[in-house]
Amino acid sequence: MAVVEISDVGIPDSALAREAREFIRETESTLLFDHSTRVYLWGAMAGQRRGLTSDHELLYTAAMFHDVGLTAGFKGSRLRFEVDGANAARDFLCGHNISQDDMQRVWLAIALHTTPGISPHLDPIAALTAEGVMMDLVGVGYDLFDEAKRKAVEAAFPHGPDFAEGLLQALYDGLQHRPEVTHGTGLADVMADRNPHFHRRDFCCLMRNSPWTCLECRND
Is the sign of the CA dihedral 46, 50, 55, 59 positive or negative? Predict the structure, then answer.
């Protein structure tokens, strides 16, 4: 069942998908809602192109919930926003007779979508969610989607000229109260871009100043 079909990819219209769509529409800004929908479409199209089989309801849920951790309901959270979104999706799926294994697949897809190099080796839901995110944010794989498909997605869910700055601001707004969770990820770049007082954690310094290093110095 699909409420709309774009370049041979249908947006699911099951009861679960409708509830997910309405929840995210009420929770997120239009910018994040449209971005999340495009993430699903890019991911589903990539799956078609690569011959990957995935449950479109679950892929849709992962795509729609992947940024919910940036929203106002998580202003007090000290977790990574990806984990907040993964937990929210799992809580949502609990009420829809979804198996524990399937809930875990969605959880991993959301929790790891900003961690490079891991999602492609997991279930297609994780791989395609991450691929859809990277296509929509920075155009990874842009030329692998033919122009007609890109235009069809754009016509339905515009990727406007202010998207980059709007999304960067949404990331910063959702993370500024918990900057420590961005260390070691590309999100630290967002913090540094928006906050001149933010200092990235240096892993080399952490090792050189760890209790083990200090103990070794004392022993010498």
Answer: negative
The C-alpha atoms of residue 125 and residue 207 are separated, in whole angstroms, by 36
Phi, psi (deg, nearest 5) at residue 158? -55, 140
Report how far residue 172's alpha carbon sits from residue 175's, in angstroms, rounded to the nearest whole number. Answer: 5
Contacts of 112 (CB under 8 A, 6+ apart): 82, 118, 119, 122, 126, 130
Residue 28 per-residue DSSP state = S
Which strand (E) or helix (H) includes residue 144?
none
The CA-based angle 190-191-194, given to 5 degrees, is 85
Question: Of all residues in the chain, what percent are helix, strand and coil, respectively (each to 5)?
Answer: 65, 5, 30
Mean confidence (pLDDT) of the chain: 94
217's tokens: 């110095």
Two tokens, residue 121: 């080796």
Q: CA gyration radius for the chain?
A: 19
Q: In the structure encoding, which two tokens stand for residue 187, read together?
A: 């999100």
Residues 65-78 have a mean pLDDT of: 98
Q: How far apart are CA 101 and CA 80, in angstroms?
A: 22
With beta carbons less than 8 A apart as the criterion, state whether 62 and 89 touch. Answer: yes
CB atoms near residue 195 (< 10 Å): 13
pTM value is 0.94
